TrEMBL record:
The chain crosses the membrane at residues 12-34, 69-89, 150-172. This is Gap junction protein. The gene is Gjd4_1. It is a multi-pass membrane protein. One gap junction consists of a cluster of closely packed pairs of transmembrane channels, the connexons, through which materials of low MW diffuse from one cell to a neighboring cell. Signal peptide: none annotated. Keywords: Cell junction, Cell membrane, Gap junction, Membrane, Transmembrane, Transmembrane helix. Belongs to the connexin family. One of its GO terms (molecular function) is gap junction channel activity. Residues 35-68 form the Connexin N-terminal domain. A connexon is composed of a hexamer of connexins. InterPro entries: Connexin, Connexin_CCC, Connexin_CS, Connexin_N, Connexin_N_sf. One of its GO terms (biological process) is cell-cell signaling. It holds the Pfam family Connexin.
Length: 199
């Protein structure tokens, strides 16, 4: 029961929403993005027989693999949440140790001798379910850290959306015109399934 006071999110709805967001994003990237873009270069057809021209045009059209870009995007969005979760777990563990010392009167031991002692104190605090007086029971506040974590995630979302726009745009064209060495003239290249990719 004591651990329910330290959960990092305000409600069960918030936790479910976060998990659904993460799972749905991963599902869209892996189940929809990968099959759609795995054969992208093979189906990028240019009306030229000039050796190397199609490869150069594809590199200009797609400087980074869409799928890898979205994978990096998803992992980057999860990093602030992982850091926040580790911070919360650390603070909760330290709070349990302080409560244990408060209840059992650790007068001489201001510091703990080893991480093993911390584990034992935490385990005993949870297993024994320490009965604390109402005056000594305090609820940890993670609202500041949670706000910072949300701010960083929002900045990352905006940054990746901007990079997405400058690298690829938000719509996939039917045709891509390219003129770059070793192409001897302007070459038209055609992208597979542009409407589906735009959607």
């Amino acid at each position: 029961q004591a651990l329910t006071l330290f959960l990092p999110f305000p409600s069960l709805v918030g936790k479910i929403w976060l998990m659904l967001t993460i799972l749905l994003r991963m599902a869209v990237v892996v189940l929809a993005g990968y099959p759609l873009y795995q054969d992208e270069q093979e189906r990028f057809v240019c009306n030229t027989l000039q050796p190397g021209c199609s490869n150069v045009c594809y590199d200009l059209f797609s400087p980074v693999s869409h799928f890898r870009f979205w994978l990096i995007h998803t992992v980057s969005i999860l990093l602030p949440y992982a850091a926040f979760s580790i911070y919360v777990l650390h603070q909760v563990a330290m709070h349990i140790v302080r409560m244990h010392c408060l209840v059992h009167g650790c007068k001489g031991n201001r510091g703990l001798s080893s991480p093993k002692d911390v584990k034992e104190l935490c385990r005993s605090a949870v297993v024994k379910r320490i009965d604390c007086a109402a005056d000594n029971l305090s609820v940890l506040n993670f609202s500041g850290a949670y706000t910072v974590h949300l701010f960083i995630r929002t900045l990352l979302e905006v940054a990746f959306a901007a990079v997405q726009y400058f690298l690829f745009g938000f719509f996939v064209p039917d045709r891509f015109s390219c003129y770059h060495s070793p192409c001897t003239s302007t070459v038209d290249c055609y992208i597979s399934r542009p409407t589906e990719k735009s959607i």
